[in-house]
Amino acid sequence: MNMMTQTMAEVAEGDPHIRIENVSKTFLGGKKGDVEALRPVSLDIRRGEFVSVLGPSGCGKSTLLMLLSGLLDPTAGRITIDGEQVSGPNSNLGIVFQQDVLLDWRGALDNILLQAEIRGADMKAAEAKARELLEMVSLTGFEDAYPRELSGGMRQRVSICRALLHEPPLLLMDEPFGALDAMTRDQLQIDLMHLCAKRDITVFFITHSIPEAIFLSDRVVVMKPRPGRIEQVLDIDLPRPRRLAMREDPKFTGYVRELTQTFKSLGVFREEH
Hints:
Strand content: 15-25%
Helix content: 25-40%
CATH superfamily of the largest domain: P-loop containing nucleotide triphosphate hydrolases
CATH class of the largest domain: Alpha Beta
Strand order of the largest sheet: 6-7-8-3-9-10
Largest sheet: 6 strands, mixed
Shape: globular
Distance between the termini: 31 Å
């Protein structure tokens, strides 16, 4: 396999949903001088694809996500979404961070509806949609619960519902399950795939977890340690819908071995001292 190819024949069929072209980012004037976060990165992502970006802390994963959102500007290169260059904050997407960022004084339903209020949407239609989303993530009956009354996993479900309320074509997720316990994380992975299966949405997902990236994704993008560069793009050829038992499948464990070996070769995993 050519580790620098993008793979997936679909990406080459027509214009991609997202095109990242020779994008780099350097943060200037820090306490330790300029910090080169990303060296030129290029990647095409097709519509409806679930792409995970996997790599060690500090490799530029979150920086790349922020560039996609338009909340950061690249130092060089450009990003286009449906042919339009990203040149500022993009409102036609959803973002979910590791911290749920819910408002303490609003219940679960009202936290979701904040998205509609900000956008000036039809509130009656938005409420119906919000209730549907809450049902899909098994939170019916918790509409009026405040964040302090919800578990970490429940709060993150509310955050995902809020990000999806306006039916964005693109969902950006930055380590959304990283702070959760293993069982809750497993359930939220299943919930996320269920939500995505119901809509035509492209997902750009940041994670440190090899099994999580494989389980969720159509492709996994491996980043080298800082300054961030793409080391490998791996197709995940597993059927959908995916079940937890699939993690015991020989093909799944083969992907785990391949990605683990990649990180060993990069010096991220060191077994000898």
